[in-house]
Every structure is written in C-alpha cells, then in structure tokens.
Amino acid sequence: MKKWSFFLVFCAIFFSNLFAQKQVQVAPDGLPMIWIEGIEIVAKAPSKKEIRESMKKQQEYHRLVYNVRKVYPYALIASDIYKKIQTEIQCLDSKADKSAYFKKREKELFARWEEELKNLSVHQGRILVLLIDRQLNQTTFDIIKDLKSWRSAIFWNMVAKFFGSNLKEDYEPNGKHKDIEFIIKRDFENS
Q: What are the structural domain ranges in the chain?
C-alpha cells in the first residue's frame, strides 16, 4: 500500500509539474500529449573505404548514364536499318541478288557510320550490342548470322569476347541490365 501511495504522489507531482510548464496538452481524442526535448540520433560515420566505394559506384552509374545516352540513338537507327534491309531482302528472289544487295548496303553503311562508331569506347560498344538486342529482340550474333554467315558471326563474337563482350548475350531488362532499362525509360521513353 505504501508503494502505491508513493507512486501516486510521485506521478501527481511529476504531471502537475509538466502541466505547469505546459508541456502536456490534451489531444482532440482526450488523451494527454507530452512534448519532450528532441533527441538527436547520429548515425555512425562511414569509413573512408565505404566513402570510396560509394563514390566509385556513383561514378560508375554516371558513366553508364552518359554511355546509354550516347549509344541509344545508334541502337534505334541500327534497328530501323535492319528492319528496312529485311523487308527489302524478302522482295528479292535469288540468293545472288540478296547477296549483291546486302554488299551494296554494307558499303553504304560503312561509308556513313564507320568513323562515328570507331570513336565509341569498348564499354559503349557493349551497351550498343545490348540495346540492339533490346530493340530487335534478337541478339547481335543472330543478326550477323542472318545477314552474312554463321562463320562471320562466330568470328565477330570471338573479337567481341577479346574485348570482354559477348554478341550472344541476351538483354535482361529485369535482371542484370535493369539500370540500363531504367535510364532508357527515364530519359527517352517518358519524354
């Protein structure tokens, strides 16, 4: 009994002191609200290694954004050219006519695009290969195989592998290429 009476006296003094300082207010639902001093919560400062890693990831992402913005228009142009070539080749009858037509178009395309595409970095080339797959839903390996030959496709895939790329790689918008997909949707498709 003494404990309860002591507790009640303590609570009465504490709450009367709070009401006197106007730190307790009554909410619209009738419950008391007590305002207390703010507590500052400070997170542990990141280590230098964590800061470096964070900055490195940020730089890599900004580099990816720059490269996607630079290469995406080429992927759109390449997919349009491929679709036109496919429709025009289907109109031709003989294999010799198709081969002659493709060689003519290949020379025109090299004359027009070779210098610009030579100036792309290896990383930009990898992204271009992925974006062409995204646009056509067909790997670059399959495109080369359709237009030229399987030998040529294997040769160019070996060259690409020498530079750390793979012409057979599928574009995965919800997998490992989700950052590229996000950049394209944010910068190109929502405008």
A: 77-189
Q: What is the pTM of this model?
A: 0.71
Residue 120 DSSP code = S
Give residues with Cβ within 8 angstroms of 88, minimum separation 6.
101
CA distances from 127 to 9, 24, 156, 158, 180 (A): 74, 61, 16, 17, 8
**Terminal CA-to-CA distance of the chain, rounded, Å?**
74
Beta bridge partners of 24: 34
Q: Does the pLDDT value for residue 70 go beyond 90? A: yes
Instruction: Name the residue with tokens 């009858």.
Output: 93
SS3 176: coil
Q: Tell me how far apart the alpha carbons of residues 14 and 7 are, in angstroms, rounded to a whole number.
A: 10
Is residue 184 within 8 Å of 68, Cβ to Cβ? yes
C-alpha to C-alpha distance for 184 and 177, rounded to whole angstroms: 11
- Per-residue pLDDT, averaged over 75-83, amounts to 92
Pairwise CA distance, residues 48 & 104, whole Å: 58
Query: Is the per-residue pLDDT at 100 higher than 90?
Result: no
Identify the pLDDT of residue 44.
82
